[in-house]
Design goal:
Layout: H1 5-14, E1 22-25, H2 31-38, E2 43-47, E3 58-59, E4 70-73, H3 76-86, E5 90-92, E6 101-102, E7 106-110, E8 114-125, E9 130-136, H4 143-149, E10 154-159, H5 167-176, H6 181-200, E11 203-214, E12 219-221, E13 225-228, H7 237-240, H8 250-257, E14 261-264, E15 269-273, H9 276-288, E16 295-298, H10 305-316, E17 323-330, H11 335-349, E18 355-361, H12 364-374, E19 379-380, H13 384-395
Parallel strand pairs: 15-17, 17-18, 18-19
Antiparallel strand pairs: 1-7, 2-4, 2-7, 3-5, 5-6, 8-9, 8-11, 9-10, 11-12, 11-13, 14-16
Helix pairs in contact: 2-3, 5-6, 10-11, 11-12
Family: Belongs to the succinate/malate CoA ligase beta subunit family.
Pfam families: ATP-grasp_2, Ligase_CoA
Organism: Microvirga lotononidis
Length: about 400
């Protein structure tokens, strides 16, 4: 689960980390009071969306101006004007795609006197099962570009969970960032507190870009992008309350109600599969035959008829779907349950696109018979390769 910058900074502040004062607003009418409360003389007006590249982004609407999604204001009148221009308008960044995202909230923050911009992030290293730090002197830039052009400017290391963060980890960061004296001491303290927050809140990723050195030579977290492990949210009701569903795909929100693993993609072939590995193989073989999957959808090993019906409805709700592939290998999941779920969903929402069904495993003959007896116009498939070729052919009009 992702949260907004201002929410992330509030979490960091709980752990004693240095962040600027700021106030979130949800309407242009709140801008003046927020600016007066902070006092100035400089304010930063930041669009709050779940995407990076806000500063370099552009609004679709001309009325929003040409200054991007992060703007420096030198007066309260400018804060008010920027708020009026930005709220309710659509911001397009390198991470949003052409559709962009509507700005529904802003973060008005004290301006900072920046001497140097640095980069620091933390993430779970799946290969080692440890928390990894990534640091660079190239703050304020896209870290992917830095990795491509000047990889020698990036340092990565992991923290052994058996020991947790140690003083030498902080010294490693300080050395990599060229920090000495009091700043090196601040870096050690910063690393310890960040690791503590990361573990305590079950974070998946924490990125501070930029981490700055101020003119008076102190470290400050000028940005905060945080995502949390969805499987651990039951331990953190205070984090769950921060969820902004307006930033999420409606189909993914609906899928979460039924505990379905669903991710919307950009293709035209909807997929319903059981098991993450089989789902990935299904996406791959669709691409192999020249088409693109419209989603990743794993109904799980013990899905009920209701769950399968919900999954099918979610797939058909996507207007980009031109065909559907149901690929089930029944172990715990029974093929007859899948068959009944598909039929129930088709009857509820109708079937306007080609449907290919490949069933194998537990109760497979019962499942196939249920589909045959349904009278639906379903294309049967013998195996995954056969299924992929048939749905691709059907989407292309049988050519």
């Amino acid at each position: 689960m992702n949260i907004h910058e201002y929410q992330g900074k509030a979490v960091l502040k709980e752990f004693g980390l240095p962040v600027s004062r700021g106030k979130a607003i949800f309407s242009a009418d709140e801008a003046e009071a927020a600016a007066q409360e902070l006092g100035g003389p400089l304010w930063v007006v930041k669009s709050q969306i779940h995407a990076g590249g806000r500063g370099k982004g552009k609004f679709k609407e001309a009325a929003a101006g040409e200054k991007g999604g992060v703007r420096l204001a030198k007066s309260i009148d400018e804060v008010k004007e920027f708020a009026r221009q930005m709220l309710g308008n659509t911001l397009v960044t390198v991470q949003t795609g052409e559709a962009g995202k509507q700005v529904n909230r802003l973060y008005i923050e004290d301006g900072s006197d920046i001497d140097t911009e640095l980069y620091l992030s933390m993430l779970v290293d799946r290969a080692t099962g440890q928390v990894a730090f990534v640091v660079s002197t190239e703050g304020g830039m896209d870290i992917e570009q830095v990795a491509h052009d000047t990889p020698e400017k990036i340092l990565t290391f992991s923290v052994d969970p058996a020991t947790g963060v140690m003083p030498h980890h902080g010294r490693t960061v300080a050395k990599a960032l060229g920090l000495k004296g009091a700043l090196a001491k601040e870096a050690e303290d910063l690393v310890t507190k960040l690791y503590t927050a990361f573990i305590a809140k079950d974070m998946e990723m924490l990125e501070i870009n930029p981490l700055i050195i101020t003119k008076d030579q102190h470290l400050k977290c000028l940005d905060a992008k945080i995502s949390f492990d969805g499987n651990a949210l039951y331990r953190h009701p205070e984090i769950q309350e921060l969820r902004d569903i307006t930033e999420e795909d409606e189909k993914e929100i609906e899928a979460s109600k039924y505990d379905l693993a669903y991710i919307a993609l950009d293709g035209t072939i909807g997929c319903m599969v059981n098991g993450a590995g089989l789902a990935m193989a299904t996406l791959d073989i669709i691409k192999l035959y020249g088409e693109e999957p419209a989603n990743f959808l794993d109904v799980g090993g013990g899905a009920s008829e209701e769950k399968v019906t919900a999954a099918f409805k979610i797939i058909t709700a996507d207007p980009n779907v031109k065909g559907i592939l149901v690929n089930i290998f029944g172990g715990i999941m029974k093929c007859d349950v899948i068959a009944r779920g598909v039929i129930a969903a088709v009857k509820a929402v109708g079937l306007q696109v080609p449907l290919v069904v490949r069933l194998e495993g537990t109760n497979v003959e019962e499942g196939k018979q249920i589909i045959r007896d349904s009278g639906l116009n379903v294309i049967p498939a013998d195996d995954l390769d056969d299924a992929a070729q048939k749905i691709v052919n059907a989407v292309r009009g049988g050519k």
